[in-house]
Amino acid sequence: MNIVKSHRELRVYIRSFELSMEIFMLTKKFPNEEIYSLTDQIRRSSRSVSSNIAEAFRRRKYPKSFGSKLNESEAESAETQNWLDYALACDYINQTDHKKIDDGYGEILGMLVKMQQTPEKWSI
Question: Which of 38, 68, 73, 96 has the fewest Cβ atoms surrounding its Cβ within 10 A?
Answer without folding.
Answer: 96
